[in-house]
Predict the structure of Gfo/Idh/MocA-like oxidoreductase N-terminal domain-containing protein.
Amino acid sequence: MPTHIAILGAGIFVRTQYIPRLREIGDCVIIKAIWSRSEESAKAAVELARDFSPEVECKWGDSGIDDIIQDTSIQGVAIVLAGEAQVDMSLKMLKAGKHVIQEKPASGSTDEAEKALLGYKALCNSIAQQPIWAVAENYRFEPAFVESRKLMNDIGDMMHIQVIVEGSMNSSNPYFSSSWRRNFTGGFILDMGVHFIAGLRMIAGCEISTVSAIAHYVDKTLPPPDNLCSLFQLENGCAGVFVMAVSSASPKILWRIDGSKGTLQIERGNESSRHGYVVLFNKADGHSQRTFYPFSGVNEELKCFIHDIAQASSKEGATCEAEPRSSYIEGARDVAVLEAMLKSSEKQGAQVHVKKF
Ligand SMILES: *[C@@H]1O[C@H](CO)[C@@H](O)[C@H](O)[C@H]1NC(C)=O
Ligand SMILES: *[C@@H]1O[C@H](CO)[C@@H](O)[C@H](O)[C@H]1NC(C)=O
Ligand SMILES: *[C@@H]1O[C@H](CO)[C@@H](O)[C@H](O)[C@H]1NC(C)=O
């Protein structure tokens, strides 16, 4: 039996990622409805999904939300809305007993995430089956990071980590003019930054305990801040640097970990016209390996969400553990690191402890 879901949101990411990726797994998922605030944008997205979900319905406005809540055939909901609206909508859908996958960032602040988690716990205690709450950040599902995590076992003692993000968020980027990102504390640093922190936390396999950072605002066509330079320390004592420019003339994105027995580097790149990551592992004994992994994080995390819903439905009444890599709490931990960096910058780089979740 295919899983029935609804999509809330009909923006660029829904049209260019959610719908095509869901089509690829069209044998196990059916889109029952697509909702947007306006009828017009919901309709445009619905037309894109009709080939593999012929009965998809167009929903808009408050009454559209009520219809989705009341439709008991809809098991899961993907929430792809403006950052500040997502947590409230997620909780609304979870209360209605729907499984939820929400786009990143998990929240706009750790205060919001804490309140949200309390609300989620309370509702889990009050209903028979705990609905899944996943955050779609995709990096924890990228094969490049999954494989790099394994290579970390051979790195010896971790010496230091560098994360360099020189982004390409200029006026040629389709998300550049997105209005909610211009009214979001932390701007693109928080919105995009959670991905790079997710990658860092995944390969480090250890939480970041303290940070010190200076933010800077240079490109006035972007929301502030657009640059961040940070020193961080992991719970295991290892330190590293995280440098991020939202828009750079020469984009480059890499994570590099030096260990006593080798150096691991993951860098965004392309091969045979496919985009993805080049993973380099140079060992102290002279052995080196290079592997290219095309992007597939969005496919993997959506597959996982649909699979988890199917598992939960087959075990009616029993608690079902959803994939921990996509749990809300992991998303909240990424927000906490960036929030601590931004707070440190407000205090001229003073050391700040990262809030624990
Ligand atoms: C935006 O950045 C990309 C990648 O660096 C570049 O190719 C493009 O020319 C830039 N566009 C503008 C308007 O600066
Ligand atoms: C900006 O964000 C605040 C807080 O999330 C919200 O209340 C307000 O409506 C937003 N303003 C605009 C113009 O989107
Ligand atoms: C692909 O990667 C090469 C370097 O390996 C780079 O010169 C080229 O600009 C990249 N192409 C695209 C489309 O990003």
In short: The chain has a mean pLDDT of 96.
